[in-house]
Structure formats: structure tokens, C-alpha cells
Amino acid sequence: MESHRSKDHLYQLFASLASALANPHRLELLDLLVQAPRTVEELAIVAHIAIANTSQHLQRLKQVHLVEDEREGLYIRYHIADPAVARLWLEMRRVASLQLAEVDRALSAYRPHRHNFHRISVGELKERMSSNGILLLDVRPEPEYRAGHLPSAVSIPLDELEQRLDELTPDKLIVAYCRGPYCVFADQALELLSGRGWDVARLEEGVVEWQLAGNPIEV
């Protein structure tokens, strides 16, 4: 009987973690924190959630040690507790995309132009980076770029891109990336650039996928 109670307690602990993840807002907050540490207020703005609700969701994630916080003066900054949390998030997405046909349909609705542009593989990207034949463009918000980016990537956030086109090299292939395959920023950047005549491609992987595959990043 004691052994059975111990086993039940183990599964209750596993269930507590699954329960903390079983909320779309908390998953979005986790996705943002995988990109870069942020304050409660910053997360609330980016995720379009009230500050009070954002704080409650973060506390729920903190209870199961998926995220940690640090006080910075009047603000509290959150970050993921361990790289294993990022791997868990990516694996959840991978299993969902394999087992739920609705994921692909929902992704097509969110990224309606995702098949309009050439997609470059990580291997091809590495090869062309060594030959200096591309300009690698990070279109995520600047705090995410500062937290970590692909080697030699240039930061031009999506909302600044149209005003900074003169910074781009016209004779190179522009490869844009953002937060990974479930992010629309790179698609929107490529739509703008291709309409202005640039040769473009998209890297589906983001910084997290790149790093967890054993590739170096720059900070």
C-alpha cells in the first residue's frame, strides 16, 4: 500500500507540471521566455494579456519550476529555469504537429504565405554563410536578438524593416528568420522584401531550434 501511495504521488507531481502547461496563455508566455528574459510588463504587452493575468500565469509556471524570476528595482524579470524547458516546449510542438492534423491547418491560417518563399535548410545556410553569399536577417524584437542570435545575423526588427531597407545588401540572398516555424514575422519580412525586388529565403528554424541542435549562437 505504501508503495502504491508513493507511485500515486509521483504521477501527481508529473500531472502538476502538465496542468501548469495546459493553458494557451501560459504556453505563449513560455514561448516568449524561451526567446529572451522579460519583465511581467513586457510580457503583458507582447502577449496582449492584462498585467495582473500575466503575473498569475507566470506564478503558476514558477510553482512547478518551469520559470524563475529576479527582481530588478521595481520590476520582476522572468526567464526559463533550465534549457530542458525549451526542449520540452519544442517536443510538445513536434508531437502535436505529428498527432494533430489540425495543427497544420491552424498554421496555414496563421502563416498564409508560408509556402510562397524558398525555405533554406540549416545545412545549406551553413554552407552559404561560409562563402559569404547571404545576408542573415533576424527580424525578431531587439531584446530577443540581444539575448542570443545566429552567428553573423543582422538585427532589423520587423516593425523597422521598411524604414531601414538601405541597410540591406542588394547583391546577396537575404535569409530571414524569427522565432521558429510557428512565427509569422519572417514571412511578413520576406513578403515586403520580395515585393521590392530582393532575392529572399526563409530559415524555418529559430534560435532555440538552432542552439538545441548543437549549433553556436552569439550574444
If you average the pLDDT, what whole number results? 94
* Name of the CATH superfamily of the largest domain: Rhodanese-like domain
Strand percentage = 5-15%
Briefly note the CATH topology name of the largest domain: Oxidized Rhodanese, domain 1
CATH architecture of the largest domain: 3-Layer(aba) Sandwich
Taking the alpha carbons of the first and last residues, their distance comes to 53 Å
Strand neighbour order, sheet with most strands: 5-4-6-7
Q: Helix share of residues?
A: 40-55%
Rg over alpha carbons: 19 Å
Number of strands: 7
Q: List unreliable stretches of 5+ residues.
A: none
Helix-strand makeup class: alpha/beta
Total of domains: 2
Question: What would your notes on this structure say?
Answer:
- With 219 residues, this protein is of the alpha/beta class.
- The chain has two domains: 86 residues, Arc Repressor Mutant, subunit A (Orthogonal Bundle); 100 residues, 3-Layer(aba) Sandwich (Oxidized Rhodanese, domain 1), CATH 3.40.250.10.
- The chain contains ten helices and seven strands.
- The strands form two sheets. A four-stranded parallel sheet has the order 5-4-6-7, sandwiched between helices. The protein has a three-stranded antiparallel sheet with strand order 1-3-2.
- β6, α9 and β7 form a beta-alpha-beta unit.
- α3 crosses α4 and α5 packs across α6.
- The N and C termini lie far apart (53 Å).
